[in-house]
Amino acid sequence: MTRSRLLGWSLILYGLLGFVLVLGGAVIGLELASRIERLAATADGTLAAAVRSTDAAADGFTNVDGSLSEAEGSAEAAGALARDASGTLASLARAMELAVFGAQPLLPLAGEFDASAEQAAALGETLDRVGGSLGATRSDVTRIGTELDTLSAELAVLRDANGTDGAAPPLRPFVMMLLAWLLVPAVGGLLGGLALLRLPRTVA
After folding, report:
1. Domain range holding 71?
2. Cα–chain center distance at 78
């Protein structure tokens, strides 16, 4: 076999191998690029949903903090009123001990006012404890709300770092251009090999 024919068959083999690689790249590369584009779009949508959900949760905790603040103030006010009522009832109980010409006609009521004064004092203490518990809960809620705000900001930064604005990167066009670039030398090798094989044989 002459050198030109050997070179021709080598070019044909090179061209066929190039066609096989291009075909394999078209089947695998385009599918892979399409999958990556779908995953990128899904990831962006997931991050956007996470940002919205975290913002909503942070707003919810802010609203809860406001409600707890009002409840704490109401409990403290009610406790103060209960203590004032206890003092008033105790004063009334002492007033019921008033003696008129040696008799105490209102004395039976004194015991009832004393009992009511004690109940009002106990209620005031209970309301003070409720107010303290609400204050502690507010601190926890505020801390969680702050952490959720921070997390929401971090998720937003992570989403912005992709720089796609929800659009998937154009991988398929890139893969197609790469396959076209690989196809050129394959076609050239195949045509060159066929041209060499068609050359007339020289007699040594």
Report:
1. 3-198
2. 40
Number of domains the chain contains: 1
Identify the CATH number of the domain in which residue 81 sits: 1.10.287
Q: pLDDT at position 104, please?
A: 56
In a domain, 79, yes or no: yes
pLDDT of residue 163: 55
Whole-number pLDDT of residue 83: 80
Q: Per the domain annotation, does 163 fall within a domain?
A: yes
Question: Would you say residue 204 lies in a domain?
Answer: no
Q: Are 166 and 44 in contact (CB under 8 A)?
A: yes
Do residues 19 and 169 make contact, with C-beta atoms less than 8 angstroms apart? no
**46: in domain:** yes
The pTM of the full predicted model, rounded to 2 decimals, is 0.46
**pLDDT tens-digit readout, 146-192:** 787 887 777 777 767 655 555 556 677 777 888 888 788 888 888 88
Mean pLDDT of all residues in the chain?
Answer: 75
